[in-house]
Each structure stands twice: as C-alpha cells, then as structure tokens.
Specification:
Layout lengths: L20 H22 L9 H68 L3 H7 L3 H72 L3 H42 L24 H16 L17 H10 L9 H4 L4 E3 L9 E4 L5 E7 L2 E4 L8 E4 L5 E6 L2
Antiparallel strand pairs: 1-6, 2-3, 2-6, 3-4, 4-5
Length: 392
C-alpha cells in the first residue's frame, strides 16, 4: 500500500507557517540583536586616559610647536612692518607725482589760454594792426618762445603722467603684498594661540594627584639638567685654572704679575680677546636685569620678551644688531661647539631651532622660556641643544 506521508503539509508546533510575516519579523529582530551583540563585543575600547608621562611629553611638544609658530609669527610681523614702510614710501611718492601732474596741467592751461587768445588774429592782420613793424616782430619772437615753452610743458606733463601711473601700479602691488603679509601674520597668531590652548586643555584635565606627579617629573628633569651644568662648570673651572698656570709660567723672570683680569680668556679653542668679553659683559648685564619679566610670544621688551626678542635686545646693548628670529640669529657670527662656549654666546635648541638663550657660563644660560614663565637662569641641558654661535 503506497504511503501517504509525503502528501502531508509540514506544520510548525504552533501551527504558523515559517514564512509568515510574524516569523519574518522575529527572525530579523533576532538577527539584529545578534549583529549588535557581535559589534558590541568586537568594538574597539575607548582610548585610555593618557599617563602623566604622556601628558608631559604632549605638553612639552605643544610648547615647542608654539615656539616654532612664534618664530613664524615674528618673521611674518617683520615682513609686514617692512612692507608697511614700503607702502608708506610709495604712497608719498604717488602724492608727490600727483602734485607734479597738477602743476604741469596748470602750465598747459596757461599756454592753452594764451594760444586761444592769439589764435583769432592771423600774421597779416597782426602786422597791419601793429603799432610798428618792430613791435610786430617782437611779438612774433615772443610767441615762438611761448610755443617752445608750451611744447616743453606738454612733454613735462606726459612725463609726470607716466611717472604717476608707474607709482600707482607699484602702490597697488605693495598694498597687495601688505595684505598677504597681514593675512600670514593673523594665521601665525592663531596658530600660536591654538597650540597654547591645547596645552592648557591637557593640563586642566589632570587630577591633583596627576599634577603633583607632573611636578615631580619636572623636578627630575631640572635636576638632571643641573647635574650636567655642574659637570660643565667644573670643566670650565679646570680649564681656567690650567690657563692661569700657563700664564704664570710665561711671566718674565722679573716677577711681573701682570695687570690683566683674564676676562678675555675662554675654554679650549673658544678663547678670544677682551673685546668680545667686554661686549658679552654688557649683554649679560642687560639680560640679568630682565630676570623675572614675563615671557610673551612676539614681545621684544622692555616689559616682556620672547626668546629671540630677549637675545636681540641684549646684544643691541653691545652695539650688535641681531635679526628678529632664531632661524636668522643662528646664521650670525661664528659657530662654536658646546665645549667652547663663552659668556655671551647664543645657544639654540631643538632640531627646528625654535628656542635660544644667552650663555652666562658654568653650563647655564639666561633665557625667556615659554608662556607662563619668566625670564630666568637655567641649565643649557634642560632642552636638546641644536648648536651655538658667537655673534661678534
């Protein structure tokens, strides 16, 4: 007997077909829940809060970037100031040219009026109405001379017109350049402010305990820099003692002790004469007098300074005009090794040469450190040294 099981319809336990809307909805919902569960399980965890060491590194880097942006701002400001002076000069020349054009135009007007008055009478009629032939010829000669002068006036007018047009073109170009410089200056200012705001934001998120830890890290960094400075101070003292012994050995047998103060001596191959030492003393005296004044980016004194503003102001006291930015100051004078530093030398820091200080001896410098800090003495080893120069 043939089986009939194959003709029966499959039924679910609840009596509802598998492809009904209710089942479809339930299946989709289950799939969604499964997908969301899988995504939640595999989603990347939130970024962990940075450690104090990481914050310190980020803040230091932001301050360094702000220092670089400050030098960019200084360069743009210098260009803007120079361009503004150029624009003022050109505008003065445009005004002078306009005066000359107007003066030439008035001269032409005078000759044009005279020609109009004389133009209505021909030569024959003029001779007939003249008091005498002699007066006619005198008048003719006068008119000839006036014609020559009139031609000269026309040439002068055309010359002044061309000059005025050239000056206006130059003024337009100068104003366009000034506008570009001002835009660059504004962008540079904003860049510095953004970097400093980012650094302040990172510091503000630290807890009291983290701030204490950060302060401890800073002290460790300062102590390490101080140890290196002390080691260099000992090296310099030993070198001065060696040079003093050598000087005594060179003294004549008469026992002359000499009158030199040794101010011009240096260390190693960096030794120089007293001229540089005298200038350096003026530089350092000025720099010491600025200690305690605040760092303000873009400032050149007298109440506040940025790093290159301080070095430029200090060396100006010794009669040496330094460029405005660290990038240009590093190109002035003679390059010297760290081992051969003398008081007054400029020490530059970081690979991008974004900071500078004035060497005072014994491994220390006077510098304007960063926003929120004042001009102070500090070890030259607090930051990575790029190189040093002797400005004069």
């Amino acid at each position: 007997m043939p089986t009939l099981a194959s003709h029966r319809k499959a039924r679910t336990r609840t009596g509802i077909r598998a492809n009904t809307p209710a089942v479809g909805f339930t299946t989709a919902a289950l799939a969604s829940v499964t997908l969301l569960s899988t995504q939640s399980a595999t989603a990347a965890p939130a970024d962990p809060k940075p450690s104090v060491e990481e914050v310190q590194k980020k803040v230091d880097d932001l301050y360094r970037q702000a220092g670089t942006a400050t030098q960019q701002y200084n360069k743009a400001k210098e260009a803007t100031d120079t361009q503004r002076k150029s624009v003022d000069r050109v505008l003065d020349e445009v005004a002078k040219s306009a005066d000359k054009v107007n003066e030439a135009r008035r001269a032409l007007g005078t000759y044009a009026a005279a020609q109009y008055r004389a133009g209505a009478v021909g030569p024959t009629a003029a001779l007939m109405f003249a008091d005498s032939p002699e007066s006619y010829f005198e008048q003719t000669q006068l008119m000839d001379r006036l014609t020559e002068r009139q031609q000269g006036a026309v040439e002068d007018f055309q010359k002044e017109q061309r000059s005025a047009a050239e000056q206006r073109t130059e003024a337009t170009k100068s104003l366009e350049t000034l506008t570009e410089s001002q835009a660059s200056l504004k962008a540079g200012k904003q860049k510095v402010q953004n970097k400093l705001a980012a650094a302040r934001s990172l510091l503000s998120e630290l807890t009291a305990e983290e701030k204490a830890r950060l302060a401890a890290l800073e002290r460790e960094k300062e102590q390490e820099a101080r140890r290196k400075a002390e080691a260099k101070a000992k090296e310099e003292a030993a070198e001065r003692e060696r040079q003093e012994e050598a000087r005594k050995e060179r003294q004549p047998a008469t026992g002359d002790t000499g009158t030199g103060t040794g101010a011009g001596t240096g260390t190693g191959s960096g030794a120089t004469d007293g001229t540089y030492a005298a200038k350096a003393e003026k530089v350092l005296a000025f720099a010491r007098a600025q200690i305690g004044k605040p760092y303000v980016w873009g400032a050149t004194g007298p109440s506040s300074y940025d790093c290159s503003g301080l070095t430029a102001a200090a060396w100006k006291e010794a009669g040496v005009q330094l460029p405005r930015t660290t990038w240009d100051q590093v190109k002035v004078g003679k390059r010297v090794a760290t081992a051969d530093l003398l008081p007054g030398d400029l020490v530059f820091f970081y690979d991008d040469i974004s900071h500078v200080g004035i060497y005072k001896g014994d491994g220390k410098m006077i510098h304007a450190p960063k926003p929120g800090a004042n001009v102070r003495e500090e070890s030259i080893y607090y930051m990575p040294i790029y190189g040093s120069v002797r400005p004069a």
